[in-house]
Design a protein that fits this description.
Keywords: Membrane, Transmembrane, Transmembrane helix. This is DUF2500 domain-containing protein. Pfam families: DUF2500. InterPro entries: DUF2500. Helix content is 39%, strand content 39%. Strands 3-2-1-4-5 form a five-stranded antiparallel sheet. A hairpin with a 2-residue loop joins β4 and β5. It folds into two domains: 45 residues; 72 residues, OB fold (Dihydrolipoamide Acetyltransferase, E2P), CATH 2.40.50. By secondary structure, it is α+β, with helices and mostly antiparallel strands. The longest helix is centred in the first third of the chain and has 41 residues. It is elongated. The protein is built from two helices and five strands; from the N terminus they run αβββαββ.
């Protein structure tokens, strides 16, 4: 009986390729989790700040869709008194309540949005 070289080759190489793919997926997930933990830790170690700011831009980012669920992420760019700008991710309810040009007091901690108290125009 004659053995096929192609069959032996496939049984040796395919498990290696699947194993490498599995390792790549696991490493990618671990890196994402570690980045998230590092950002959370950095935000917790920075002081909470409250500064006068103006909402200068709004944007949304959509992830997913098609055959899967779509997720919306909401961002607002604030300009502080010094002229520096900071873009923070906000909840949908905060996104809907703020309008470009709103002025008030922005409260944040690192990259974490904590709130915005609009100054009355009266």
């Amino acid at each position: 009986m004659i053995k096929s070289q192609t069959g032996d080759f496939m049984f040796q190489v395919v498990p290696i390729i699947i194993g490498i793919g599995f390792i790549i997926v696991i490493v990618t997930i671990l890196v994402a989790v570690l980045k998230g933990i590092a950002r959370w830790n950095k935000n917790n170690s920075t002081p909470k700040l409250m500064v006068k700011a103006e909402a200068v831009a709004k944007r949304t980012e959509v992830h997913g869709g098609g055959n899967t669920s779509a997720y919306n992420y909401y961002f607002i760019t604030f300009e502080v008194e010094s002229g520096d700008r900071i873009e923070l991710q906000v909840k949908d309810s905060d996104f809907g309540m703020l309008v470009e040009g709103d002025q008030g007091e922005l409260q944040f901690q690192g990259t974490r949005y904590l709130g915005f108290k609009r100054l009355s125009s009266k």
